[in-house]
């Protein structure tokens, strides 16, 4: 569904993505792991169009993404749950959800996400719908960020460190939500630092180091391979 | 007493006029981070467009509508052609918009000449309202009414509509708004056109009050910049309060201390900035 082929990208003069190649098939959840500075967030930003790649191809359902702007990429069906959540601070919880709302284009029998459906999935957001987005706890903000992306009815979700800064019990909840979303048929590419969460929800693990994918395999394969864990993830 | 009230109404009418001008300026500043120094010339253009169409025997209101539409279209053209290339580049913005103000001002001189002109008060409002011994010109009451109506409209658009939420979100985090599928470029064009249309509207309504003359564009620009600074950059609510303040104080200043009237306005700005550097309703800057 999503396919990156030899993608290179720069921030100023620093060479961040040095030929990234991988793909995510429909309905799968792929987790991208790696140390800080490995290029994980840049990968997400490059797919979402927030950062332009210099070379290589990014294909989503047979469309090339690299020359499109972020809003066009979003309209192709890619949703973003960004690092740090980036909740709009001057909007209420409800406004954060409704400002980006878009109906599902394809009639493919999947859930058509709307305010009611989001509130069903995250009842706490309904309770706090009149609060400003930034008055929520970290976990609630993460749910709001996920809900906001779902409101655009994406077929593919980019999640950048959904566990960042959350208490362990909340991380478990986020994991359950991601599994639920996968069951609705959503394909997911997730960047994580939390290996346990990644292995719990993902079908495939990619490990990134210095701008390249250096390992890929199943969660089981990663758990058994202590050398890789030690070498690239600092476990 | 009646003179005092009449002066107060005059001050309020000027204040509302300043508000209508400053609203466009401050909205463009708040949303797009652009100080549009051509805003004063758009105001002047608005007045001259009405002047032209009224001479063609059109009714004031139709001329006003044409003026608002034409300034909005000009706003779209300016944004698409020029302004959009200088987002995030402050020095370029200043040079570009200041240059535009010279060009538009010269075009105005070329078309309409340098003679002082006035717009007639529309027939419907060319009357006075007498309450007891007090006489209020109807047109001034009307300008105050339109100013309040505009404030109400802005409040509604900002806090009750989806486009208002999108614009506020854009001020918080522009890139994220784009990543959620909203065409930020289109929003910016719309906001700039809206701001330009407000300049045109206030020019049309201001024509009968202050007339048209060479240099009015800069005078109006300076006054509206003061209003924006006192009110807090980017806050139209702040501009509403500060415009009333400036209009009323300036009017009374002209009566009581004729030689100091402009100075007084600057003094208020100084005092406000000393006490609240971010302006009355400005966002705090860390």
UniProtKB/TrEMBL annotation, chain A:
ABC transporter domain residues: 2-235
An annotated GO BP: L-amino acid transport
Annotated InterPro entries: AAA+_ATPase, ABC_transporter-like_ATP-bd, ABC_transporter-like_CS, BCAA_Transport_ATP-bd_LivF, P-loop_NTPase
A GO molecular-function descriptor: ATP hydrolysis activity
Domain of life, per lineage: Bacteria
Signal peptide residue numbers: none
The entry's keywords: Amino-acid transport, ATP-binding, Nucleotide-binding, Transport
SUPFAM superfamilies listed in its UniProt record: P-loop containing nucleoside triphosphate hydrolases
Family recorded in the similarity comment: Belongs to the ABC transporter superfamily.
Protein name: Branched-chain amino acid transport system ATP-binding protein
From TrEMBL, chain B:
Keyword set, alphabetical order: Amino-acid transport, Cell membrane, Membrane, Transmembrane, Transmembrane helix, Transport
Entry GO terms, CC: plasma membrane
Taxonomy, superkingdom: Bacteria
GO molecular function, one term: transmembrane transporter activity
InterPro entries reported in the protein's UniProt record: ABC_transp_permease (IPR001851), BCAA_transport_permease (IPR052157)
Full protein name: Amino acid/amide ABC transporter membrane protein 1 (HAAT family)
Subcellular location: Cell membrane
Record bears the keyword Transmembrane: yes
Family to which the UniProt record says this protein belongs: Belongs to the binding-protein-dependent transport system permease family. LivHM subfamily.
Keyword tRNA-binding: no
Record-annotated membrane-spanning stretches: 12-30, 37-54, 60-82, 94-112, 138-157, 177-200, 220-248, 255-275
Topology class, membrane: Multi-pass membrane protein
Gene Ontology BP annotations: amino acid transport
């Amino acid at each position: 569904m999503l396919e990156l082929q030899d993608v290179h990208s720069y921030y100023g003069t620093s060479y961040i993505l040095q030929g990234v190649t991988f793909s995510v098939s429909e309905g799968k959840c792929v987790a991208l792991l790696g140390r800080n500075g490995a290029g994980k967030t840049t990968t997400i930003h490059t797919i979402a169009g927030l950062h332009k790649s210099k070379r290589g191809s990014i294909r989503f359902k047979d469309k090339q993404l690299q020359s499109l702007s972020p809003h066009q990429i979003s309209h192709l069906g890619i949703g973003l749950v960004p690092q740090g959540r980036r909740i709009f601070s001057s909007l209420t919880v409800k406004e954060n959800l409704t400002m980006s709302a878009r109906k599902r284009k394809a009639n493919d029998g999947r859930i058509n996400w709307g305010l009611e459906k989001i509130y069903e999935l995250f009842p706490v957001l309904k309770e706090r719908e009149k609060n400003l987005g930034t008055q929520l706890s970290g976990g609630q903000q993460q749910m709001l960020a996920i809900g906001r992306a779902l409101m655009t009815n994406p077929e593919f979700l980019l999640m950048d460190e959904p566990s960042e800064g959350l208490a362990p019990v909340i991380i478990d909840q986020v994991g359950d939500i991601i599994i639920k979303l996968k069951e609705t048929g959503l394909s997911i590419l997730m960047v994580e630092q939390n290996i346990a969460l990644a292995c719990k929800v993902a079908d495939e693990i990619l490990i990134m180091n210095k701008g390249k994918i250096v390992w890929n395999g199943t969660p089981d394969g990663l758990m058994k391979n202590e050398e890789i864990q030690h070498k690239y993830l600092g476990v | 007493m009646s003179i005092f009230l009449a002066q107060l109404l005059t001050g309020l009418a000027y204040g509302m006029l300043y508000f209508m001008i400053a609203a466009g300026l401050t909205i463009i500043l708040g949303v797009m981070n652009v100080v549009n120094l051509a805003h004063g010339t758009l105001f002047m253009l608005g007045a001259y467009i009405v002047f032209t169409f009224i001479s063609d025997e059109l009714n004031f209101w139709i001329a006003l509508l044409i003026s608002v539409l034409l300034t909005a279209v000009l706003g779209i053209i300016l944004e698409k052609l020029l302004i959009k290339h200088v987002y995030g580049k402050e020095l370029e913005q200043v040079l570009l918009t200041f240059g535009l103000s010279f060009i538009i001002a010269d075009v105005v001189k070329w078309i309409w000449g340098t003679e002082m002109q006035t717009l007639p008060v529309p027939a419907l409002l060319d009357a006075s309202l007498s309450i007891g011994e007090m006489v209020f010109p109807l047109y001034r009451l009307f300008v105050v009414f339109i100013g309040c109506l505009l404030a109400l409209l802005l409040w509604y658009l900002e806090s009750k509509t989806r486009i208002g939420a999108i614009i506020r979100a854009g001020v918080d985090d522009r890139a994220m708004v784009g990543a959620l599928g909203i065409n930020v470029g289109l929003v910016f064009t719309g906001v700039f056109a809206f701001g330009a249309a407000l300049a045109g509207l206030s020019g049309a309504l201001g024509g009968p009050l202050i007339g048209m003359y060479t240099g009015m564009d800069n005078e109006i620009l300076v006054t509206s910049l003061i209003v924006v600074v006192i009110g807090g950059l980017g806050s139209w609510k702040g501009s509403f309060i500060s415009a009333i303040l400036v209009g009323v104080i300036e009017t009374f200043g002209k009566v009581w201390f004729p030689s100091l009237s402009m100075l007084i306005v600057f003094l208020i700005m100084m005092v406000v900035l000393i006490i609240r550097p971010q302006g009355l309703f400005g966002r705090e800057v860390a």
